[in-house]
Amino acid sequence: MPLSVLTQPQYIYAARMTVRPANGGQIKIENLTGRKGVRFGFDVTRSFNATENTPQKATIRVYNLAEDTRQNLQGCKGVLAPVPASWSKAQLLASDADRNYDGPDAITQNPEPLPGIELPPSQAEASIKFGYAYVILEAGYGGKVGQIFEGTMLIPRSKQVDATTIETTLEVGDGALGASKGIANTSFPEGTETLTVVRHLIRLLGVGAGNLDTANWLRVLAAGQKQATAPFLTSSKLAAPYSPSGQSAWVELAQMLEMSNVKWMIDAGDFFLLEPDGYLLGAPVDLGKPIGRIDEDGGVYSGTFLLNQNARPAGKITVNSPKFRGEWIARSVNFRGDTHGGGWYTIVKFSANDPLGLGL
User: Fold this and answer.
1) Above 90 in pLDDT, residue 117?
2) 278-311 burial, b if ≥16 CB within 10 A, otherwise e?
3) Which residues of 105-115 are buried (b: 16+ CB within 10 A; e: fewer)?
4) pLDDT interval class at 75 (50, 70, 90)
5) In the 8-state DSSP scheme, what is residue 303?
6) Mean pLDDT of 12-20
7) Average pLDDT over residues 4-13
8) DSSP string covering 151-200, please?
């Protein structure tokens, strides 16, 4: 007798969350059996927007965890919430024993990154070094999962939503640590290779170098300068001394690159240079057949597909539809799902792959 649709492996939702607290060890929560396991919900958006480049964010919800697990998660330090909101001032000043708390220490006095000090070239290492928990979310089907998000803890919270349900919500940011804590204050003299400055700013953000190397940088910079009407950088070297304003390294990096039409993004803990038309080199990801219709708004299309962990912003995609032949560019990728009901989808906004700007 054939399996019912909901018990076939390709329809059994699976998810795993791994949290690495700053004090060591890890908290791993997984459901590889769909409705039989702990309930997971998530809303993850990874996007590229050349005019509004901000850290990627994810919201993860887990239900009815064991009390000690909830306490451990709530005790993790977050960039936007150093301690659980429920703690009173007296609790904050009390010892762990007086607070009756033995989870990761949310109020350990880890120093914040000093202005101009480069962070480890790994977002996870940088987060943990400064006391923040690091989170990895994986999702898939039939007991097999793949990563769909990683980043620094922003906010851990638990609340009672009804008589039988406690919801634990984690907000996570990819690149959020450096964007909020990394401050640029180091000057560079005239004649310095711009790549040196860019690498320094990336290290202030505490993310990996991704596809940034000398050859890629010079190629993308030259292409960006060619398309820009008034490029800020007119050669590979600084034409004048560079003196940061003392603001966020993220802002400094954005200003330096975007004024010369050099597009970039931080995704999955790494920095990526994009082609002038805003896409990553590489083979396309086949999203398969869309679920329902594909909508269009100003040349940007939006379609819903089965969850596909390989989809990423600025990546090339193909769609199994006679109306959308050829390769397209994903502008944003939204992973959305709930192991106990509703959809388990990848919602992609995409536009034409037109590297020559011919309007094809």
Assistant:
1) no
2) bbbeeebbebeebeeebeeeeeebbbbbbbbbeb
3) bbbeeeeebee
4) confident
5) E
6) 95
7) 56
8) EEEEEEEEEEEETTEEEEEEEEEESHHHHHH-B----B-TT-BHHHHHHH
Contacts 24+ apart (CB under 8 A), 125-130: 125/206, 126/177, 126/178, 126/206, 126/207, 127/22, 127/152, 127/153, 127/177, 127/206, 128/20, 128/22, 129/22, 130/22, 130/177, 130/181
pLDDT of residue 259: 72
Given a cut of 50, is residue 81 above it in pLDDT? yes
Are the beta carbons of 146 and 138 closer than 8 angstroms? yes
* Strand stretches in 8-143, DSSP E: 13-20, 27-31, 40-47, 56-63, 134-141
Confidence of residue 231 (pLDDT cuts 50, 70, 90): low
Mean pLDDT of the region 201-206: 93
Could you say which DSSP state residue 98 is in? H
The two three-digit tokens of residue 251, written as one number: 């802002």
Q: Where are the beta strands (DSSP E) in the chain?
A: 13-20, 27-31, 40-47, 56-63, 134-141, 144-162, 165-174, 264-267, 270-273, 285-286, 295-297, 300-306, 316-318, 328-338, 344-352
Residue 337: CB atoms within 10 A of its CB come to 20
pLDDT score recorded for residue 10: 60
The structure tokens listed for 303 are: 């379609």
**Six token digits for residue 319:** 């769609």
Q: What is the pLDDT of residues 295-339, one digit of tens each?
A: 999 999 999 999 999 999 999 999 999 999 899 999 999 999 999
The contacts of residue 243 (CB under 8 Å, 6+ apart) are 187
Beta strands 134-141 and 13-20, pairing class:
antiparallel
Model pTM?
0.86
CA distance 210 to 305: 27
Distance between CA atoms of residues 111 and 261, nearest Å: 36
Six token digits for residue 300: 């940007």
Alpha carbon distance 356, 95 (integer Å): 63
